[in-house]
């Protein structure tokens, strides 16, 4: 059996040669036709007709391709016998960039992997949240002004009388305004007065308690003529120190300064401090007469507390040297 294919006289248009799919289809048709015919040489006329059909199909293909839209790669190719051709297994695995971007965004949302620079950029924009507060304050102000205007509007009768009899309308209008202001002030005082009274009472109680504790420590200064000096020294002391010093220590220092400022005897101050320091010292047990504990020897004198009182002596000298 021989296979004869003639090249058609009419050539295909430029850039349209019998190659690729067109050639495969022509060969498939030829083999199918030969399989149907009995063995023997094929007639020349039939081969020529088949060749002409092949050339006509090749020439008609460009027009069909130009008229039809380009088919997608996923469409199945079917030959003349109705059998689908084998597809490339990798054609369905192609993914577009948009699908990749969507998949990345879904993964970020699922695991909370959002971009941190965007959050940091949003943090400095806190002052913008304060602007609506100013707008709200303006709106409230405008609403209050509108309510006040409604309250002070004149009725039709008052508006007519204002043109003809203003002496009757204006006094009523002024008295109404005065009473509204008076009522608002009374309400404000009723609300604030209890808290103010409580504060005053607490301040007076604290003052009396501090004064009692001070004069309990310094009874020599509890005289009416000494109180102005004590109050002046206490005011100067607390203005410099404030509440950083314990109150007991402040009482001691203010009392000592007031004692020296009032030109009271410094010896009495030293004696007073010595008497307070004496009970704090431990008493040494005395041995019975005629018996001496072994290794004791002559009893030593207790050290005088003058070293501790040098601070008051220096303070007294400094204050006495100053001009009052």
Which keywords apply here?
flat; mainly alpha; single chain; 64% helix
Describe this structure as you would to a colleague:
It is a single chain. With 324 residues, the protein is mostly helical. The protein has helices spanning 21-36, 44-67, 97-111, 116-122, 127-151, 156-164, 166-217, 227-241, 247-261, 266-277, 306-321. Among the domains are: 1-63, no CATH class; 172-217; 218-278 and 308-324, no CATH class. Helix 6 crosses helix 7 (166-217), helix 8 packs across helix 9 and helix 9 (247-261) crosses helix 11. The longest helix has 52 residues, at 166-217. The model is unreliable at 5-16, 41-47, 58-81 and 287-311 (pLDDT under 50).
Overview in brief:
With 324 residues, the protein is an all-alpha fold. Helices cover 64% and strands 0% of the residues.
> Which residue ranges are poorly predicted, with pLDDT under 50 across at least 5 consecutive positions?
5-16, 41-47, 58-81, 287-311
Specify the number of helices. 11
Instruction: Look at the helices and sheets and give the structural class.
Output: mainly alpha
Provide mean pLDDT, rounded: 70
Proportion of β residues? under 5%
């Amino acid at each position: 059996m021989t296979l004869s294919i003639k090249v058609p006289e009419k050539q295909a248009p430029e850039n349209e040669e019998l190659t690729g799919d067109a050639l495969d289809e022509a060969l498939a048709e030829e083999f199918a036709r030969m399989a149907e015919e009995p063995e023997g040489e094929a007639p020349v006329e039939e081969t020529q007709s088949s060749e002409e059909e092949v050339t006509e199909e090749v020439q008609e293909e460009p027009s069909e391709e130009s008229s039809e839209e380009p088919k997608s790669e996923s469409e199945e190719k079917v030959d003349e016998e109705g059998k689908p051709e084998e597809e490339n297994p990798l054609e369905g695995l192609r993914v577009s960039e948009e699908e990749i971007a969507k998949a990345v965004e879904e993964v970020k949302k699922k695991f909370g992997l959002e971009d941190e620079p965007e959050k940091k950029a949003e943090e400095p924009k806190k002052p913008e949240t304060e602007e609506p507060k100013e707008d709200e304050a303006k709106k409230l102000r405008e609403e209050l002004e509108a309510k006040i205007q409604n309250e002070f509007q004149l009725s039709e009768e008052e508006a007519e009388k204002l043109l003809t009899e203003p002496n009757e309308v204006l006094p009523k209008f002024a008295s109404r305004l005065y009473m509204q202001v008076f009522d608002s002030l009374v309400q404000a005082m009723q609300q604030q007065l209890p808290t103010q009274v409580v504060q005053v009472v607490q301040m007076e109680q604290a003052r009396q308690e501090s004064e009692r504790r001070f004069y309990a420590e310094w009874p020599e200064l509890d005289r009416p003529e000494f109180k102005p000096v004590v109050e002046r020294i206490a005011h100067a002391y607390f203005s410099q120190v404030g509440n950083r010093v314990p109150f007991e220590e402040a009482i001691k220092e203010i009392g000592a300064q007031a004692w020296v400022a009032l030109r009271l005897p410094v010896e009495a101050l030293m004696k007073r401090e010595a008497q307070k320091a004496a009970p704090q010292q431990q008493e040494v047990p005395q041995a019975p007469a005629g018996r001496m504990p072994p290794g004791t020897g002559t009893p030593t004198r207790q050290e005088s507390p003058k070293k501790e009182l040098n601070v008051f002596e220096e303070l007294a000298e400094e204050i006495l040297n100053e001009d009052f």
